[in-house]
Specification:
Elements lengths: L6 H6 L50 H4 L2 H6 L2 E2 H9 L7 H11 L5 E2 L1 H6 L9 H6 L29 E3 L4 E5 L33 H12 L6 E5 L8 H12 L6 E5 L2 H4 L2 H5 L1 H16 L3 E6 L9 H12 L3 E7 L8 H13 L3 E6 L14 H11 L10 E6 L4 E4 L5 E3 L4 E5 L8 E5 L7 H7 L2 H22 L1
Parallel strand pairs: 4-5, 5-6, 6-7, 7-8, 8-9, 9-10
Antiparallel strand pairs: 1-2, 3-4, 10-11, 12-13, 13-14
The structure holds iron/sulfur cluster.
C-alpha cells in the first residue's frame, strides 16, 4: 500500500525563490578631509601663564596666590568704591564715568572675581564680552521693553514655600542662599540675588537651616518629586558642611533620584576646585553616596563665552573628572557676548575639550534693566542651526526659551506662532500648564522703528499681543 506524501513535504521539495540582494558598490568618489593643523584648533588653545600681572593691581601676585580661592574672594571687586578704585588708571578715559552712572541704574549689585576682572580687555572694555556680562555702563543701556518684569519666570508664584519652586511635575528648584561669587547683570533672579540696589529692593533668601526644613518637608510630602536643583545664589558660596547636609538629606529621601548643584563658580573662580579641598571632598562624597544608592549627583555650571575657560579651568575640570563628578553647562545667549555662530561653535568645542557637557543655551529671560543684552528668538534659532553638527550630539546644547510666566523650558523652535515683525512668539507647555499660552517678546532694538513706536502705545501693545495669541490659538484649533 502506498501512502500519499503530505502536501507540506511536496512544497518543501520546491526550491524557494532566492531573495534579491542589493549590491554594495564602492563610492565613485571619496571625500577626504585634509588634516587641520593643531594651531587652527582654537578650542584647544587655552590662555595660560600669568596674564593677570598685566593688571596694575595684580602685577605682584604670583600663581600660588592667584590660584588660591580665599585670595580670589578677598580681592574681588565689590561695590562702587572698590570698582572705581580698580578702574582708575586702567580703563580708557570716559569709561569710569560711564560705569559710575550705569552702576546706579542696574538691578544687580557689582561683584567680580580677580580671575574675571583680569580676563577683560581693558583697552576696549565697551565691547568686551566679559565686561558686558558683569559691569553695567550707562551709555549702552536701552529702554526696557514694556513687557519686561523683575521675576519674569514667576518663580515666586510657583513657590509653595519660600525659595522652593515646584513647576514641573517631578522636579523642584531649591534656592538655598542668595549670594554668588560674582553678580551677573542678566541674572533671572535679580528680584532676590545680592544686596539691594538703587533700583531693586530684594526678596530675602538667606542661608537658613530653618527655612530649608520647610523645603525638605514639602519635598518629602510630594512623592512625585524625583529631581532637585539646588541653586541660589550659587552653591560655590555654600560652606562644605551645609552642602553635605543638604545633599545627604535629599539623597536619603526615597522619592529623590537625582540632585544637581548649580554653580557659576567653575566659570568665574575655577581655583576653588584646586584649593578648597573641604568643598570638593563634600561634593565628591555626595557623588559617591549617590552612586552607591544608584542616584545621580551632578554639577550644573554656567560658561557663556570661550574666554572664560583658561588653562586654570582645564586643571579644575580635570580634578572634577578624575573624581567622577559630572559637569554640564547652561549658557545664556546675550547680544555682544555670544550671539555669533563662531563664538558659540568655539564655546561648544572648548567646553567639550575641558570635559564640560554643553546642555542648554537659554534665550535671555525678559528681566528688567538689561534690554541691551537680549537677542531675538530668530537669532537663537539661526545659531542653533549652525552649531548643531559641529561636534557629537551629546555635547551639543538644546536651545530653549524659558517660557515667561512659568511655562518652563521650551525648545526655541517649538513656538505655536512667531510674528517676526512685532517680535511676539507664543509657546505652549502641555506637560507643565496644559491649555495655557506663554508669550516671549523680542527686544525693541531688534524691531523696526515703527514697531518700536507701537510698543510705546498701550492700545497697540494689547493689539499686538492679542494678534499673536489669536494666531497661535487658530493654528492649535486647525491641528485638532
Ligand atoms: S551666578 Fe547665577 S544666580 Fe548668581 S548672579 Fe549670576 S546668574 Fe544670578
Amino acid at each position: 500500500m502506498t501512502t500519499a506524501e503530505p502536501v507540506d513535504e511536496l512544497v518543501s521539495n520546491t526550491p524557494p525563490d532566492k531573495p534579491k540582494k542589493d549590491k554594495a558598490e564602492p563610492p565613485k568618489e571619496r571625500r577626504v578631509r585634509d588634516p587641520i593643523p593643531e594651531d587652527q584648533l582654537e578650542h584647544r588653545q587655552l590662555r595660560d601663564g600669568e596674564w593677570w600681572r598685566e593688571i596694575p593691581a595684580f602685577e605682584d601676585v604670583d600663581a600660588e596666590q592667584f590660584n588660591d580661592h580665599i585670595w580670589q574672594m578677598r580681592n574681588s571687586v565689590y561695590g562702587e568704591d572698590s570698582l572705581i578704585e580698580n578702574l582708575e588708571g586702567l580703563a580708557p578715559p570716559g569709561f569710569v564715568e560711564d560705569v559710575r552712572e550705569g552702576f546706579h541704574k542696574a538691578p544687580m549689585a557689582v561683584r567680580i572675581t580677580p580671575y574675571i576682572f583680569s580676563l577683560i580687555d581693558w583697552d576696549n572694555p565697551w565691547e568686551d564680552p566679559l565686561r558686558l556680562q558683569f559691569l553695567p555702563i550707562a551709555s549702552r543701556l536701552s529702554p526696557d521693553h514694556p513687557m519686561l518684569t523683575l521675576d519674569s519666570l514667576h518663580e515666586q508664584a510657583d513657590a509653595p514655600v519660600d525659595g522652593l519652586t515646584h513647576r514641573y511635575p517631578d522636579k523642584a528648584l531649591f534656592l538655598v542662599l542668595d549670594t554668588c561669587p560674582v553678580y551677573c547683570r542678566f541674572c533671572t533672579r535679580s528680584y532676590a540675588i545680592g544686596v539691594d540696589t538703587d533700583t531693586v529692593e530684594k526678596v530675602q533668601l538667606k542661608v537658613s537651616p530653618e527655612r530649608w526644613e520647610e523645603g525638605f518637608d514639602y519635598i518629602e510630602q510630594h512623592p512625585e518629586l524625583e529631581d532637585i536643583v539646588i541653586s541660589g545664589g550659587d552653591t560655590y558660596n555654600m560652606p562644605a558642611k551645609h552642602l553635605r547636609n543638604i545633599g545627604e538629606r535629599l539623597l536619603k529621601m526615597d522619592n529623590i533620584r537625582r540632585i544637581r548643584f548649580a554653580t557659576k563658580g567653575l566659570a568665574v573662580m575655577p581655583m576653588k576646585v584646586l584649593s578648597d579641598d573641604k568643598w570638593l571632598d563634600a561634593m565628591q562624597d555626595l557623588c559617591d553616596l549617590g552612586r552607591e544608592m544608584h542616584k545621580e549627583v551632578a554639577i550644573h555650571t554656567h560658561f557663556n563665552h570661550p574666554k572664560e575657560a583658561t588653562a586654570i579651568s582645564k586643571r579644575a575640570m580635570e580634578r572634577l573628572f578624575e573624581r567622577g563628578i559630572k559637569v554640564r553647562n547652561q549658557c545664556v545667549l546675550q547680544r555682544g557676548v555670544n550671539d555669533s555662530i563662531e563664538t558659540m561653535k568655539l564655546l561648544t568645542k572648548r567646553l567639550s575639550e575641558i570635559n564640560v557637557q554643553p546642555y542648554y543655551v537659554y534665550q535671555h529671560d525678559m528681566v528688567k534693566g538689561v534690554e541691551d543684552l537680549r537677542t531675538s528668538v530668530q537669532t537663537n534659532i539661526d545659531i542653533e542651526k549652525a552649531v548643531r553638527g559641529v561636534t557629537a550630539g551629546f555635547n551639543t546644547s538644546t536651545h530653549v526659551v524659558d517660557a515667561p510666566g512659568g511655562g518652563g523650558k521650551r525648545d526655541v523652535h517649538s513656538y505655536e506662532y512667531y510674528n517676526r515683525e512685532t517680535g511676539v512668539s507664543v509657546y505652549q507647555a502641555p506637560s507643565v500648564k496644559p491649555g495655557e499660552y506663554f508669550t516671549y517678546f523680542d527686544p525693541l532694538h531688534s524691531l523696526s522703528e515703527s514697531v518700536q513706536q507701537d510698543w510705546r502705545d498701550p492700545d497697540k501693545q494689547e493689539e499686538m499681543v492679542e494678534q499673536a495669541l489669536e494666531a497661535a490659538k487658530d493654528r492649535d484649533h486647525q491641528r485638532i
